Amino acid sequence: MFKILVVEDNVDIRELFCTVLNQNGYRAIPSTDGADALEVMDREYVDLIVADIMMPRMDGYELVKAIRDADYTIPVLMVTAKGQFEDLQKAFHFGVDDYMVKPVNVNELVLRVEALLRRAKISSEKKIVIGKTVLNYDALTVTLNGEETILPQKEFFLLYKLLSYPNKIFTRQQLMDEIWGMFSESDERTVNTHINRLRERFAECDDFEIVTVRGLGYKAVKKNG
After folding, report:
1. Among residues 40, 103, 192, 218, which one has the fewest Cβ atoms lying within 10 Å of its Cβ?
2. Contact 118, 168 (CB under 8 A)
3. pTM of the model
């Protein structure tokens, strides 16, 4: 059972979040502020943190900074009334993984928690499983129906990125910057070429397809749900 640390000084909101998370199969651990949260983390392992920003003793920014300075990669979902872009920018600068503005739809909160935990699992295992397709990051291999193929590095990284975030649209420039580097002399046509090679390789795959989103870029779509 995943343990979710809920860091919120408002008792009603804290109890609401804990109740909803418990009802959805998680073990919610209540905490009143950042300092209290760090004490909890000293005592037991936590899989994810849901934290407010404005809190006594230690606020959400300070909590995230302390966690990241200690090299914790635990996912953090910030939930706050501070909805200005500057606040969002500051939160991500400190190392927040996702951000919701109050009032919060608790059903959406649960969905975001699920997504963050799924990404964290992919990151720690360095493996993606979609149907009968398995991507192994360390070996640069794709196993399809029991048959293993080693992909060229850039092709693998491109496919791994797309399949890590199914249905998320990535622009060609985003993919260029992340996989080839911001200072690469290659242009966006390189991405197109690699996408076409991947499509040829996995033309018979029943688990996913790479879709072109006209005027935007590419996304990976699961064929079976």
Report:
1. 103
2. no
3. 0.59
